[in-house]
Amino acid sequence: TSPPYATAQEATTKATMVRYSAAAFLAAICMLSSNNSFGNVGLVRAADMTEAEKAAETAAANAAAEEMIEAISTPYSPPEGSSAFEYEAEVNKMLDIVINSLYTNKDIFLRELISNASDALDKIRFLSVTKPELLGDTPNLEMKIEYDPDAKTLTIRDTGLGMTKDDLINNLGTVARSGTTNFMKALKESETNDISQIGMFGVGFYSTFLVADRVSVASKHNDDDTQHVWESLNGESSFHVGPDPRGNTLGRGTEITLHLKEDAEEYLSPYKLKEMIRHYSEFVTHPVSLRQIKTIQVPKETDEFDEEEEEKKEDGDDIEVSEEDEQEEKEPEMEEVTTYEYEQINTDPAIWARDKDGITDEEYQEFWKVVSKGDSAGDAEDWTHFNAEGNINFKSILYVPSEVPFALQQGNLEMMKPGLRLYVRKVLISDEFDLMPRYLNFIKGVVDSDDLPLNVNRETLQESKIVKIIKKKLVRKALELIRKMSQQEMPADDETDEAEVDSDGNVIVKDDADKKPKVHPYITWYKKFGLSLKMGCIDDSANKDKLQKLLRFKSSKASGEDEFTSLQEYVDRMKEWQKEIYVFPGESIKQLSESSFMDAFNDRDVEVLYLTDSIDEYFIGNVREFNGVKFRDITKEGVKFSDEDEDLSKRRNKVYADKFKPLTKYLKKLFGSDVSRVAISKRLGRAPAIVSSSEYGSSANMDRIMRAQAFAHGVSPSENMMPTGILELNPRHPFVIKLLESIPDDGETEPPQSVKDNAWILLDMATMSGGFPIRDPKKFAARMTGVLKAGLDIESLTLADEIDPPAEEDLPDEPEFEMPDGFNMEDLNLDDLDINM
Is the confidence at residue 229, as pLDDT, over 50? Predict the structure, then answer.
């Protein structure tokens, strides 16, 4: 497509220049025709062509060249009878802003035109409430979109308020001036301003030049007897306005025709248009229809009639014709006919704009299927429908799914699509806004705000203060919804179950123990989405306290499959002397419940929370407390019990420390860097020793998680440094007492090797009990071999001689089973066999 020219003289000059180069253009075509191929079209060599073929091809090339030259050199002709007007804003600068700053996606032009048409329809609907006669002969308020592949045009037509000649000049001739702005101003001055409009028509309208070389706007207003047309070329500094040569074809409303650029012909595809219309106008109040062009086969009409048959009727001959003489009726000749049919695209209701008291649960669930788009299986678990009022007003419906979205099941947060759609007056602005933090990205729903600017790009709007306020309110509403789910009453027993009866017809009454325990719906939901809430405690410090109240944990007193406890319930059950929330991170409930760390807590009947999710370590490290009560990892040092006399405990610990000082000193020397230090434990029950972590170091479970990182760079697992823990000794255990007695009193004499081996075995046991890996598996295996050797009373580990079994006698081959001569398995008919079971 050639660029538009400001004047006819310039266009004529350009056309003359093009005609002078026609010979060169034809020469280029002839050169191309001498090749074997051009693109994907095969050409015949000139040497293989006859003179007649050469002459015909030359004539065709000349005709094609003349047609192309005429097409590209024809100057632009404005609408007949129109007048030229200069833009009030410098168009080139304006288009640069539109293309490079406001819009990063060309598809936006359709959103702008739909929103402007929706504006116009809302205006006439509002005005017709008090003046029904304004609707006149065009009572239907609707939008229609048409595409023409031959003319390469796209047309958007509405039956809205329309524009007069002055409106076209003022509204479309000035950037950022709009009829909507003036209409809103008038409404504010009126007594009933119960309607709001969107968009800045001047800027939004010019997004059409992203895809069009020429834009024509025809419009008819009730206050103007004449239908006028506005037209402008892309890049021109002026536009033309005049009476529409076609007359009054609209009745009322506006028709925008885009003459598309060559690189924008994708918008002539009905599939592309249908997808875009549904995307941007899915919930627009007024019907939006797309004209579908279809080609069908129909019988060809003919004016011929059978003269012979007519003569027979005139003669009145009663001639009987047998069926054999009748000729079969010929199939009618078919022809292709192009048909046009409008299909409404926006059929889904915008239920968020309705009063929530008039919406049934079934309607909410149906709308859930629309907003979830198959991203999450099952129905919605719960939802909230609200109107936010204040500095920022918006309407919203938020859904909590009952099943985990597919991307979240894989733990792939990057593949999770934003779950909320942002609308302005039911026109979709974007479904890619991060209106929810990542830990709530499973929330689905819609947000419709009247306070957002329509015609800005996604990146700019994402950073706007209005969106940040909306996001803050949405998060608060989502957490409130989840809180209400957690506080729901336990559902009543299902009385529809059929009662069981015995052989005598008596109803069997089941004991309570035989009944399956009921599970609270929130527990069922939390087992699927609890990790996201824990992530929220890490990411969202502002809502950390609210999120902690929603968490549920397994514990030493609630370890069943569906048994969970909240942090508040744990605090309410704490012992009077207890000052901390005891937590125990690990791999499984079974492993944790059987650990030596639990001995002292079980003896004192103290509840411990089991943390079996990998994220729990990060959660405890970031949160640290709940309602002022600190978390205490029982696998780390510093665990104290206040149920004993403090003075007695201090004196006892001092005596133990002095008594076992030779042993702790020797063991630290023996183990070296394998332990950070050796201490007398104050919390062990029945275990002889255990390896714990330092208070501010990584626990054994955290070390396991870190070593399992699949994407750790720079350090291979074999080179990863093993953690060093604290060896805690139980001063009351016989093993520890016996080791103390085996240590020489002078502290200089080396104890026998058996004492050293026993000490190492004690460390191995304590290391595994603490959840740490064995530092040297080879040495550990050698020590255990010695234990087995002593236990089995074996003096030497020399292998026995290899056995030499005698040779076996050759056994005769098994006889082969031969089938009788003439027997064939295919001849066997199983149906003839009489088999009585």
Answer: yes
Q: Could you tell me how far CA 8 lies from the centroid of its own chain? A: 54
CA distance 154 to 255: 10
146 phi and psi angles, rounded to 5 deg: -130, 145
Distance CA 351, CA 364 (A): 8
DSSP SS3 for 629: strand
Bridge-based pairing of strands 444-449 and 581-585 is unpaired
Token look-up 């101003």 returns: 185
Buried b (16+ CB within 10 A) or exposed e, 394-430: bbbbbbbbbbbbebbeeeeeeebebbbbbbbbbbbbb
pLDDT given at position 317: 52
Count CA atoms within 13 Å of residue 504 on its CB side: 3
| Spatial separation of the C-alpha atoms in residues 275 and 294, rounded to whole Å | 18
- Whole-number Å distance between alpha carbons of 108 and 96: 16
Tokens 């239907």 sit on residue: 140
* Distance in angstroms (rounded) separating the CA atoms of residues 548 and 540: 11
Question: How far apart, in whole angstroms, are the C-alpha atoms of residue 653 and residue 682?
Answer: 7
**Residue 11: Cβ within 10 Å count:** 18
Give the helix/strand (H/E) hosting 205.
Answer: helix 201-205
Q: Which of 547, 537, 416 is nearest to 478 (CA)?
A: 547
Instruction: Give the pLDDT of residue 197.
Output: 42
Amino acid at 144: K
Q: Are 729 and 665 in contact (CB under 8 A)?
A: no
Which DSSP helix (H) or strand (E) runs through 712? none
DSSP state at residue 317: -
- Taking a C-beta distance cutoff of 8 angstroms, is the pair 424, 198 a contact? yes
pLDDT of residue 188: 56
Average pLDDT, rounded, for the chain: 78
Q: Which two tokens stand for residue 760?
A: 């190492």
Number of H helices, E strands in the chain: 26, 24
Global pTM?
0.68
Radius of gyration of the chain from its Cα atoms, rounded to whole angstroms: 43
- Is the per-residue pLDDT at 5 higher than 80? no
Distance of CA 744 to CAs 84, 262, 514, 671, 748, Å? 113, 97, 63, 17, 7
Say if residues 346 and 282 touch (Cβ distance below 8 Å). Answer: yes
At 271, the pLDDT band (50, 70, 90 cuts) reads very high
Distance of CA 763 to the CA centre of its chain: 50
**DSSP string of 463-521, one letter each residue:** TSHHHHHHHHHHHHHHHHHHHHHHTPPPPPP-TTSPPPB-TTSPBPPPPTTTSPPP--H
